[in-house]
Amino acid sequence: MSDFHNRSQLVSTRRSDYVWQYEYYDDEEPVSFDGLKAHRYSIVIGFWVGLAVFVIFMFFVLTLLTKTGAPHQENPDLAEKRHRPEGRLVDINGHQEENDKAFSRPLLDGSPSYFNFYISEEDQAHKKRKLEDKRSSTKDKVGRHLCSSEIEEMHEDIEESGGHQPLNRLIEESKTDRECAFLSHFNIPNFVNLDHSSTLGEDDLLYEPSIILERQSQAHNAHCDTH
Amino acid sequence: MNQTDCPEVKVPFLVFFTVGIISLAENLLVVVAVIRSRNLHSPMYCFMCSLAAFNTIASVTKTWENLMIVLADAGHLEKRGPSETDLDDVMDSLLCMSFVGSKSSFLAIAVDRYGFFVFQTYSYITIFHALRYHNIMTMKRTGVILGLIWTLCAVLAVLMVKFFDFKFIVICFTVFFIISLATICFLYIYMFMMARIHARNIAALLGGGRDRSQHQRRWGSNMRGALTLTILFGAFVVCWAPFFVHLIIIVVCPMNPYCECYRSLFELHVVLMMSHALIDPVIYAFRMAELRHTFRKMLFCSGWKLCL
């Protein structure tokens, strides 16, 4: 507080041609308190109540985002936003529960297009894949996507990561009891919540990402051990 | 003064001193741990180290300033002498610098996590790209970014204290605060949502059966993720917003009695701001297992050659 006093004093002695527009805590001019209609601390109380409401609202929004909810009608104009590589998420996502449309709720109606992008993509995928055999369609889609678009990069990455297995065998290894072998070859981030890993979740996303990259070669077994 | 006026709420110096010393100790611990241990030399930990360094500067400066105020009130120091005003300038610059720096470090941490996350998304689809981000965000680039942040903060601090008008500073700070809050909010919520898509798609890819217990387990960890995010933002907003509203009120309604009552709580708001430097390491750094492990080694095994 005294630094404000000091600063005003300092400026008035050094730069007298400047005119200070504000008045702050001038002891010579007390603020009059006559005729107050509301309680004198009303701004303070209003501010803290507003802040508490904001934090609680944010928490509820986040927990709502974690739940599965009501179906959301498609946005047809957002269907063409497929320029991001994450668009391919949808094709792998064949295995859906009936009510499992996490972000398709009216709450997100006004949200940025990124979120609606996922909602519309997932809805389309869900409608397409409803009657198919989910597991085989998943594997086929993965295989097709990987083979069709990533062949050149795959070769250099195989050498980088040290794995030597061909792609098809890796895809066929996608059973829960062989999760560890799968992970050890793919180095999937450990914040993904897999079947057995109830202790890992989005928490790890927030504080463990760089560790994965640091243990490139020895993390294959470490992943198995932590899971 | 009228009977209904709002007396200024005075916080005892001991509270300031305690908060300052504890936050200084914690942040210094983080800085030393990251610098000393080899396996913590990664972008994420460097940004956290920079955040902790800014918090250290802030807490040192604030504690020192309060010490000077106490001494000046006790009559040992001349309140308006030339050396005191210069020192005041220096401390104000340091405070500005630490404020802008800690906000920029938050932004850098959020952007780093976000960038990593986007690459992870891409990587699990293609399966082999998990290592790409490590090539994009190298230590050299991290050093460059950190150097830029520190230089920018120092320059801004000096400029603001020397040349600019108080109103302009308030406007700048408020705008920067709101922009950084909005950006961080957006990045984290986006990551949160993408993590959920990740989890479901990976589980689908591995072909697990959808039974009730698995669903409940995932819901439990999602709740924890939501709680973590709420704590992160909640602490940021609760600790910084009162001070900012104070700055705005000074500019907007200096003579209003309601505003005067809000301004009388200034020292409480400053304590809140300082306590943010105290809880920052707890919610960012101490949650990372690697850092905790390094602390334990540093603090408890310093004498023994066996613990290495």
TrEMBL record, chain A:
Q: Which residues form the signal peptide?
A: none
**Keyword set includes Transmembrane:** yes
Q: What are the alphabetically sorted keywords of the record?
A: Cell membrane, Endoplasmic reticulum, Membrane, Transmembrane, Transmembrane helix
How the protein sits in the membrane? Answer: Single-pass membrane protein
Q: Which Pfam families match?
A: MRAP
- For the keyword Cell membrane, the answer is yes
Quote the subcellular location field of this record: Cell membrane; Endoplasmic reticulum membrane
Where are the bilayer-spanning segments?
41-65
Q: Which InterPro entries does the record match to this protein?
A: MRAP
**Where is it mainly found?**
membrane
To which protein family does this belong? Belongs to the MRAP family.
The name of this protein is Melanocortin 2 receptor accessory protein 2
Q: Which organism is it from?
A: Goodea atripinnis
From TrEMBL, chain B:
Give the organism the record lists.
Goodea atripinnis
| UniProt name for this protein | G-protein coupled receptors family 1 profile domain-containing protein
Residues forming the G-protein coupled receptors family 1 profile domain are 26-284
- Reply yes or no: does the keyword Transmembrane helix apply: yes
Gene3D superfamilies recorded: Rhodopsin 7-helix transmembrane proteins (1.20.1070.10)
**Which PANTHER family does the annotation name?**
G-PROTEIN COUPLED RECEPTOR
Q: How does it sit in the membrane?
A: Multi-pass membrane protein
Q: Which Pfam families match?
A: 7tm_1 (PF00001)
Q: Which key words are in the record?
A: Cell membrane, G-protein coupled receptor, Membrane, Receptor, Transducer, Transmembrane, Transmembrane helix
Its localization reads: Cell membrane
**Key word Secreted present in the record?**
no
Residue ranges annotated as transmembrane are 12-35, 114-131, 143-162, 168-190, 226-252, 264-286
Record-linked InterPro entries: GPCR_Rhodpsn (IPR000276), GPCR_Rhodpsn_7TM (IPR017452), Melcrt_ACTH_rcpt (IPR001671)
